[in-house]
Amino acid sequence: MTPAGTAQPRNEGVDGTVLGDDGLARPPWAAVDPLLREYYDSEWGVPVRDEQGLYERICLEGFQAGLSWATILRKRPAFRQAFLDFQPDAVAAFTEADVERLLQDPGIVRNRLKIRAAITNAQATIALRDREGLVDFVWQFQPRTTPRPASHAEIPTQSPESVALSKALRKQGFSFVGPTTMFALMEAIGLVDTHLLDSHRRGSSGVWTG
Fold first, then answer.
1. Residue 203, SS3?
2. Which of 40, 127, 153, 171 is the most buried (most CB within 10 A)?
3. Are strands 18-19 and 25-26 parallel, antiparallel or unpaired?
């Protein structure tokens, strides 16, 4: 789950990092809003290698489609309550009655297709346990190299690996996992490092250096 892509909040006219009052360089989208700043400093780009955490990120990236990440981040506590902390086994058992209940919940994004996608994605996550599991399935699409952007304009919105991951997940029954959404996921979970080169978080995932 990442603010990168078409829905990324950003300061127009600023394409490099912004020096914060703490002396640390961050991209514009993480330089002002305290919630986004904390997310950037502590979570975005940190490897996610547990099933529940990865399932949650896939769902929230899907809910973000067409919206800003700030909106999803502010609603995340409500999402976690509504979807039982994104435990795949619990969400997979949701019924149409649960869909109708969630459509009345003002704390989340009330989109029927996205809510149903969270349920089918939980079921698909469980099905993958008979194979390599969701985590290994997603991480097999780690590219051989990562972008090295000096400015926001140099950050791609998708890649051959995100296209391949999207196709593979769709084949397994997942939905709301388009190539752009999957590239945002890859950024958020450390599969690629798109921190700007002079950001204080560059290389912080431990997956990529430099």
1. coil
2. 40
3. antiparallel
Does the reported pTM lie above 0.85?
yes
Q: Give domain 1-8+17-210's CATH architecture.
A: Orthogonal Bundle (1.10)
The three-point CA angle 187-137-118 to 5° equals 75
Selected catalytic residue, list 39, 44, 55, 139: 39
Helix (H, G, I), strand (E, B) or coil at 25: strand
Annotated catalytic residue 69: yes
3-state secondary structure of 19: strand
Q: Which residues are annotated as a binding site?
A: 195
Task: Name the E strands within 114-175.
Answer: none
Judge residue 151's burial from the number of C-beta atoms within 10 Å of its C-beta, 0-12 exposed, 13-18 middle, 19 or more buried: middle
Residue that the structure tokens 């290994």 belong to: 136
Q: What is the reported pLDDT for 7?
A: 36
Q: Does 55 participate in catalysis according to the annotation?
A: no
| Digit-coded pLDDT (tens) for 60-72 | 999 999 899 999 9
Annotation marks residue 39 as catalytic:
yes
pLDDT value of residue 16: 86
Domain ranges of the chain: 1-8+17-210
Q: What is the pLDDT of residue 2?
A: 43
And the tokens for 65?
A: 């489609």
Q: Which of 51, 61, 161, 187 is catalytic?
A: 61
Q: What residues form the annotated binding site for Zn(2+)? A: 195
